[in-house]
Design brief:
18% strand; alpha+beta; 258 residues; 9 strands; single chain; 10 helices; Glutaredoxin; seven-stranded mixed beta sheet
Length: 258
């Protein structure tokens, strides 16, 4: 791979906030840089990654510049930012995953069925990846969402209400205490957040996924210092695997924001 920072600098994409085609690092001058290549903006991983970032957004942004690029179009980006709270000025759009290929990120399972269109093959491969085929760690991560994780923090505050399916299903955070306590990720807590994300995307599918050809494309995380040295890199190899440590997805930033 070429220097990944050079790839980030030299790949122009559309910025969600104003629609301009500019460098992904437009506005960045110096300091520590967190550069995130998200998969499809309607992907589980993209929405969940943004949720984790929102929990520490002000803390991270005080010391680190954040830039992200996702697969979709500007309308996808606007909807994504509206739902997740991710700032539009930090999000860029790559409709055909060009930067993902330049960064040599995992394109996912690539089985091709005769007579299937590109999108149909992508759907087939995504379903197989969700079943754990060609998708490292996916089934274990799905299970963790249901069984809980004492090494992960509590995700939903006791007084917070999560609308898992609008007008159909909602839970108060304190409900999950019934499964064994509080102060850690309780059973079904993460699964409920993922159900909310799925409900959001399926209810707005054409907005989030204007082109289904890149459903299997995975993402990557890159952290650079003020001298453009690569401090950290993680490349996703499966669905629900956007972080090296899914129990604490932002743990790699701790020493930089302490």
């Amino acid at each position: 791979m070429n220097n990944p920072l050079e790839i980030w600098k030299s790949t122009p994409c559309q910025r969600v906030s104003d629609g301009k085609i500019v460098s992904l690092l437009d506005g960045y001058e110096s300091g520590t840089l967190l550069a995130i290549a998200l998969p499809q903006l309607g992907d589980f991983d993209s929405l969940e990654y943004a949720w984790w970032l929102k929990q520490k957004l002000s803390e991270i942004a005080a010391k680190i510049t954040i830039r992200a690029v996702g697969i979709g179009d500007r309308a996808s980006g606007q909807k994504f930012c509206e739902f997740t709270g991710f700032p539009e000025s930090w999000l860029f759009i790559d409709p055909d995953a060009a930067i993902h290929r330049r960064l040599q990120l995992y394109q996912g399972l690539a089985i091709k069925m005769p007579l299937f269109t590109l999108s149909q093959n992508a759907w087939l491969n995504l379903m197989l990846m969700c079943a754990g085929i060609g998708s490292s760690g996916t089934l274990a991560e799905v299970l963790r969402g249901y069984t809980g994780d004492r090494s992960s923090p509590q995700l939903i505050a006791d007084d917070e209400t999560i609308i898992a399916i609008p007008k159909v299903l909602s839970f108060k955070g304190s409900f999950f205490n019934l499964a064994g306590g509080k102060g850690f990720q309780r059973p079904f807590e993460l699964a409920t957040l993922r159900l909310r994300n799925m409900s959001e995307v399926l209810g707005n599918w054409q907005v989030y996924v204007p082109n289904a050809a890149y459903l299997t494309q995975r993402g990557g995380t890159f952290l650079f210092d003020d001298r453009e040295n690569l401090l950290y890199k993680y490349c996703d190899r499966g669905v629900l695997g956007f972080a090296e440590n899914m129990s604490q997805p932002l743990a790699f930033l701790d020493r930089f924001i302490a």
